[in-house]
Amino acid sequence: MKKPELLLPAGNLDTLKTAIAYGADAVYIGGEAFSLRAKADNFDKETMTEAIGFAHAHGVKVYVTVNIFAHNADIDKAGPYLRELAGIRPDALIISDPGLFMMAKELAPGIDIHVSTQMNSTNYEAFLFWYRLGAKRVVNARELSLAELKEIRSRIPEDMEIESFVHGAMCISYSGRCLLSGYMTGRSANLGACTHPCRWNYAVMEEKRPGEYFPVEEDERGTYIFNSRDLCMIEHIPELIEAGVDSFKVEGRMKTQLYVAAAARAYRNAIDDYFTDPELYRRRIPLYKEEIGKCTYREFTTGFYFGKPNEEAQIYDSNTYVKNYTFLGSVAEVLPDGSVRIEQKNKFCTGDEIEILKKDLTSVFAKVLRIRDAATGADQESCPHSRQQLLITLTGTPEVYDILCVRSKEQ
To answer: Are the beta carbons of 244 and 153 closer than 8 angstroms?
Structure first.
């Protein structure tokens, strides 16, 4: 069996480095234009060049999303951008729009093209269509079952790759082609500016009774009728491999380094354990599930893989995440005296016990002995200001890129 690629998201350079440190085979990122995550930090030419250089130095591939549905006004800008990407040399471009696909073939020759899930490829003839046009890989529509994927695998060339989402947020519209945001707020999801109205609460109002709202469920707040659970396939690695999936994709270019680290190390270890010994993988499933819970998430579902979702795949009483852990920061540098430099993300204090996530699914627990401002060297008892550069001394010494977190107090 061919070991599948583990593909992680990165909304910025720090998250890309985290994904690589925790076991990604490839990462996908967006530039400042033509990406469906307009609110992510994203990458300009300089940071994208740095990101690709860092990834390639660690044997990791980088795919760049160019996956908006372009309007006429976008085409003139697309040419220079594709030429720029041709010079930066990512490993592949992820594209939805057929026009941009053909432009990329001409203007960025030699760079693989992956067809985005936004293209809604649901059958083997669609895969073959893209293959004949020169696509290396298709990210299948999320609405496919494992049985359908297995049949597609049997009917397409061996050198054509299938990429499938295995973890992360699910969109209620067909493979993410949603009009709700554009209709309700004027911000188009298909141009990267989604406001996520699928997570809002709703109630029914009868035509002749304006102003009288009737909850769809017995909940005074209304109901989140579009609010899908998150996808999680950590318990089904063998089935995905048997179906012929070449790349396991984790959703989340807007997510934190903690989310990316937790997802990367859980799926990395699950895949590697399965290829070492399937019985080892089965024994460690409870551990993978526990560790994947360190991501922020909505309750989990297996999506369409085992049949069409029913009402159990929706969350009707809340649109909030389960947040078992709080992200404190990642280690940017280890100093000669054993202290470490971090950019603080959430508050912690001297005397607190924190958790250091290691790549092998273990954790090291350490006490915070000292906190100093990195600019002045001044001691401080706590760090209430987000993004402050700190020097901290712990009872143990973490490594560069290690994630620091703490179990949320409400848990």
So the answer is: yes
Count the alpha carbons within 13 Å of 218 in the hemisphere toward its beta carbon: 0
Strands 325-334 and 340-343: antiparallel
Q: Which CATH class is domain 5-173+228-313?
A: alpha beta
Sign of CA dihedral 140, 144, 149, 155: negative
- The amino acid sitting at 341 is R
Cα distance between residue 197 and residue 181, in whole Å:
6
Is the model's pTM score more than 0.90?
Answer: no
Strand bridging mode 363-373 / 389-394: antiparallel
* CB atoms inside a 10 Å sphere around CB 271: 22
CA distance 231 to 78: 33
- Structural domain boundaries in the chain: 5-173+228-313, 178-214, 325-407
Q: What is the CA 408 to chain-centroid distance, rounded?
A: 22
> What is the enclosing helix (H) or strand (E) of 241?
helix 237-242
CA distances from 210 to 48, 177, 204, 225 (A): 52, 31, 10, 21
Is the distance from CB of 69 to CB of 97 less than 8 angstroms? yes
Cβ atoms of 190 and 181 within 8 Å: the answer is no
Which CATH number among 2.60.40.1120, 3.20.20.70, 2.40.30.10, 3.40.50.720 corresponds to the domain 325-407? 2.40.30.10
pLDDT digits (tens, 9 = 90+) for 113-168: 999 998 999 999 999 999 999 999 999 998 899 999 999 999 999 999 999 999 98
Q: How far apart are the first and last CA of the chain?
A: 40
Structure token digits, residue 261: 């680290």
| Integer Cα distance of 368 and 408 in angstroms | 17
How far apart (Å, rounded) are the C-alpha atoms in residues 315 and 198? 11
DSSP assigned state of 354: E
